[in-house]
Amino acid sequence: MLLGSNRSPSVSLASLLNHHNTANLQVDRNSLTGQATDLLREQIIGGRIPPGTKLIEREVAELLGISRMPAREALMNLEREGLVVAKNSGRYVIQPTQTDIEHLYQVRLLLECLAVELAASHATPEFCRALQANLQQMRDAIARNDRAAYVRSDLEAHQLIWAQAGNPHLQKMLHSITGPIFLFIATHTEFQTDWTETLQLHEELADAICAGNPKQAAQSMREQLENSLQLSLRVFRNPS
User: Fold this and answer.
1) Given Cys at both, which of 103, 137, 159, 217 links 120, Cβ 3.0 to 4.6 Å?
2) Average pLDDT across the chain, whole number
3) In the chain, how many domains are there?
4) Which UniProt keywords apply (predicted)?
């Protein structure tokens, strides 16, 4: 799959993140590559390192307080996950095109409907409590009009479901597919005008899963993803 090739102006990572607490980006040297990958993924999907940003290995290493080898490995991990694209001039955060988004949703629809069916088949009280707590975080984010927090909680809700599905291969594929999608959503929240509608879709999905109804859970997920796709396509229909 070819991802968009437009670039944003050359800006250092430190300047992009200067409004955030970069002390939290320092990693534990006992697990450098994994932690560096997780931290960079969070910053990218959260939209704090925007699409088109050039990721220079030296800058990444300096920002995270690690050597260049784990920084390079972290960037390679993100490339495999679809969040970073390698070009002759270096590595860049992806800029998904309309075709990319449509193709990603096609695959996501198949995989995530399977995931919710599996999760509904063996939902536990502990899992349902965690899912409800996550939904409350989404409600709180709406009340604060905190779009970034809502998107983070949205992703966390889906990740809870993938884990409950109990299939690590499915979980890995969903991580790869949805990373670019959530990056896109996080950087275009202005096209989401009714957050309560998407929250209601999440609540209906949670109810179906925790009721142990795989068929209804899959239907709820299908409706949620179709709604999300249409919202995403508004970006291309109404370019700024």
Assistant:
1) 217
2) 88
3) 2
4) DNA-binding, Transcription, Transcription regulation
Fill in the DSSP letter of residue 83.
S
How far, in Å, CA of 165 to CA of 115, rounded? 5
Q: Which of 93, 117, 143 is the last residue of a domain?
A: 93
Quick one: tokens of 110? 């198949």
End-to-end CA distance of the chain: 25
Other C-beta atoms within 10 Å of 239: how many? 6
Q: Which domain holds residue 38?
A: 13-93
CA–centroid distance for 30 within its chain: 26
Per residue in 63-89, pLDDT (tens digit) is 899 999 999 999 999 998 889 999 999
Answer positive or negative: Cα dihedral of 77, 82, 86, 92. negative
Q: Name the residue among 19, 89, 3 with its Cα closest to residue 51.
A: 3
CB 73, CB 31: distance < 8 Å = no
| pTM, to two decimals | 0.79
Specify the long-range contacts of residues 18-21, CB closer than 8 Å, at least 24 apart.
20/48
Do both 107 and 52 map to the same domain?
no
Handedness of CA 64, 79, 232, 132 (dihedral sign): negative
Q: Tokens at residue 102, please?
A: 């449509």
User: What is the domain-level CATH number for residue 131?
Assistant: 1.20.120.530
pLDDT for 173-210, tens place per residue?
A: 998 899 899 999 888 877 767 788 889 999 999 999 99
